[in-house]
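Problem 12. The chain below contains 861 residues. Write out its predicted structure in token notation.
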Amino acid sequence: MTPTPRALRLFGFLLIAGGGFAALPLAGQDDVAKYPGPFPGGYPAMSGIGGSGKMYMESYFPPPVTASPTYPAFSPDGASIAFAYQGRIWAVPAEGGVARQLTSGAGYHSQPSWSSDGRYIAYAADIGLNLDIFLLDLESGASRRLTEDPAIDMRPRFSPDGSRILFTTGRDGTFDLWAYDLGADALESVIAHPGANDMAGDWIGDTGDIVFVSKRGEAALGSGSLWRWSADTGEAELLIRIETNYQASPVVAPHGGSVAYVTDASGNNDIYQVPTYRASAAQDRSSPGIQQVRLTHTRTDEYFPSWSPDGERLVYARNGGLHGEERTIDGGMGFGLYTTGRGGGEPVPVRIEDYAWSEPTGRVQVRVTDPRGRRVPSRIYLEGSDGRSYFPDGSFPRVLSGPEDYYFHTDGSFSVTLPVGAAELEVWRGFEYEPAMHTVDVRAGEWTNVDVRLERWIDMAADGWYSGDNHIHPNYGGHYFVTPLDLGNKALAEDLNVANGMIANYWANSRVEDLEHFLGHPHPHPDPRTIVYYNEEYRPNFFAHMSLLNLVELITPFYIGYEGTAFRELYPDNAAVLRRVHEQGGIGGYVHPFGLSHRGPDPAPGGARELPVDAILGLADFVDVSCIWSDELGTAAIWYRLLNTGSRIPATAGTDAMTDMWRHPAVGTTRSYVYTGEEDLDYDEWADAMAAGHAFVTSGPILTLDVDGRGMGEELAVSRGESVRVAVTARSLFEMERLDIIRNGEIIHTVEATGDGRTLEAEIDVAIDGSGWIAARVLGPAQHGAMDSYLFAHTNPVFVIADGEPIRSPEDAAFFVRWIERTLDDIHSMDRWDDPAHKAEVVATFEEGLRLYQAQANDGR
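Solution.
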């Protein structure tokens, strides 16, 4: 049996004897206000960008807060480079040296743009999730706000004559390009196409024309292609179709003849250049059309290009840390500034020797240790006396959208510059350590040392329980570059034992990330209780995404059903893919399966459309009931129906965290605890135990379940009419609201939280009138430190088999009959197959699942 974790065995139980129970309503099914769907994002909603598209937009497009220099911009005389760092605008001599702080005040500042006379810098400031355009007067040092709207206003660009500032705005529900007229002190809409998302514009010399990014016309995958807008006609024409993914940042050379921009056409983000006009055959009969020229050639990513005033050089930011900089858990991952010639060539670093703050500051040295004095990798929240978050130089600042909790990771030792006054420091590490909070007195010009001790309140691995995250994207088009060692170190900082990195194409893009990191076995890591295994997220457009684990060989193609690619065909189905995975000894299951709508009684078959088919065919090995970007209660409602129809598919967890994105949750903030019972962690044993259901999923609470001596994923044989004893405990760092015992998808007992809500327990007798299953779950509110939209934990069930009868539910089988019939109607209505035999194979798979559910549904008639 799967035992109770050691620290929980001391707890007594309240005995509640009983026989049959009246079914209670599934809490949360209609209570969206209490248990909402995934975080809707931090910035205001946009009608033109919804769902997961908004999450990607927020992760890619708004300027990230960084602890290294980004968004460089040459001054008009070429002597200085302005840039963003620690949420402020700075300037450094173009040849390098000491940087001086230019802006101060509320919010986080970025994206500087100089006026042609060098007196002003326009910039974007994020104040309480309100991005607006500000103007800095370099003579007085004062800033004034130019726009004030709840929607996103960002990426200001001074016109060559300094009279207007072009910027991207989301105030009409889609991204458009507006301008602020400094002389008239007025705003005007410049480029706006319904639904096109016109963004990231720059002026073309003194013509008044604009180069910009747009999804109008035959748009590329991602955020759009490069277009040119004519001030004379108000019309736009396509310059070049590219994949930009919100990172294009087009900047026009001072002469107006060419535009530099960022694209991932090479497999990572590089800077390219094209002319700002399309040559006609009459002008140049030798012209083959616009051809992009690649200017940078590195495995890391280049971002935010800016021209020198003479048009001979570009300055840009490159990720991956600086040459010779030590790479730690979150250190050495930042950006450096570089310049290159207008035709490319060897990059020249712009070395920043130091930062001269304009405000009084002090330095703080923090050391995090365990009771034995060993350094402890951990997650850090650090807020200065000014209410802003601060980060060590060269680190990777991140933020959780919605609550706007800024954080970073450390290997247990870091130093940071902070404004004078009281700073608030929090240190967290996963779910098994008590967090530590300290107020730090920062004194001007002085060093302050802070020693923090973290202590475990429970050690799950000591009892053979190992935590894992089934769905992590190390690199997914974000601003940072993450290596396998980085991923392992981030897992270590979150006390996560198994990190499954997903090799996959990202968003609506054909680029496949992390291919070079696939080994067919775990990557080496110095910590014996940390395993990093690069596996695969298989991403079909229609059937639903799957996590494929313990792979020896990758499954290709990595995606199907993407129009405009060679893999537009909806073939093969997921059943065929899962058979290929099983042939090599791997396992596969469904990720981020369902949303809020699936809490209802008869939802449409969206989300993981093929899951019911693969479950009854015995092909799907697991389903991620817990995931940051899907709804746990909605997914659990479908999972309960699968269990009721005889499937023993276990619940698992995967964050779907993109570790290279700054606006994203940490790895392991929802996870599976898997019982192997072994002293040493072994990936094969862990994967086998997870697939056998010896696990619970959680975004914080630690659960135990015992049904007459049987544990999670096990079977108990009884006779009809017998009673079984069910014992459950839940303990948590976070406030829990309720503990539910669930039988066959119905709540049969609830314990409401009292006191601090950190401990819940129950023990009841349950009369068995037929075969079924028993499990437990916990619900609670969203709260600081946890990173899901509500607190959730769920055990896998104990299967209680009465008189050898199989678990069956004609009602739930009929539900899946309707589900598959509607899906087949969709399949028959589509023309998405190149070979009729391929469509016939897909139809046959769904019809086989339909037949099995129909047989079970008919048994109840």
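Discussion. The radius of gyration is 28 Å. Students who got a different answer should revisit the alignment rule from Section 12.3.
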